[in-house]
Amino acid sequence: MRKLIVSTFLTLDGVMQGPGGPGEDDDGGFAHGGWSVNYWDEMMGQVMGAAMSKPFDLVLGRRTYDIFAAHWPRATEEDAAKPLNDATKYVASRSRPALEWRNSVLIEGDAADGIAALKQQDGPELQVHGSANLIQTLLRHDLVDEYRLWVFPVVLGSGKRLFSAGAVPAALKLVDSKVSTTGVVIGTYQPAGELVTGSFALE
Predict the structure, then answer these.
(1) How high is the pLDDT of residue 43?
(2) Sheet of strand 56-61: strand arrangement
């Protein structure tokens, strides 16, 4: 069974929208695109390089696919373009777009059913980048095996969130963590069953 991994840049208040630049995703009048750019350091580059160094395929929503397809085919190998260009890109879209980026495949029918079927196939791990709306579908259907969350020391107050309203309560287990020189906390989490509550009240 293939693992499905959500890899996401987040603000401290959980926003994942438009980290890479102005105009990347201005849905809802979002005006803070590019909030992650000034925090990059060498260690973050090494962590990202390690994640891209082993085989993987991508699962993307339509908007993120369009953003990636406009950039990575024109980027150089020094910009780490080769792993992304070589990967198979599985795209969830309600329409039937022309997928012109090399190795792109439309997920036919229901996205959750299609991705669940992909997980049952042989092949490398499935990585989800961006794709805020698609992630909500993955969460509702319990399809995520691991979260790689890059939490930046930024608060935005609005924007698309990783865990939006209606997220199913659940426990997670931290299995790895690193901190960049710029204060970015990179944590790897795996599902740990149902949420267990308690009380500090004195009996």
Answers:
(1) 95
(2) 104-106, 89-92, 56-61, 125-129, 4-11, 146-152, 185-191, 172-179
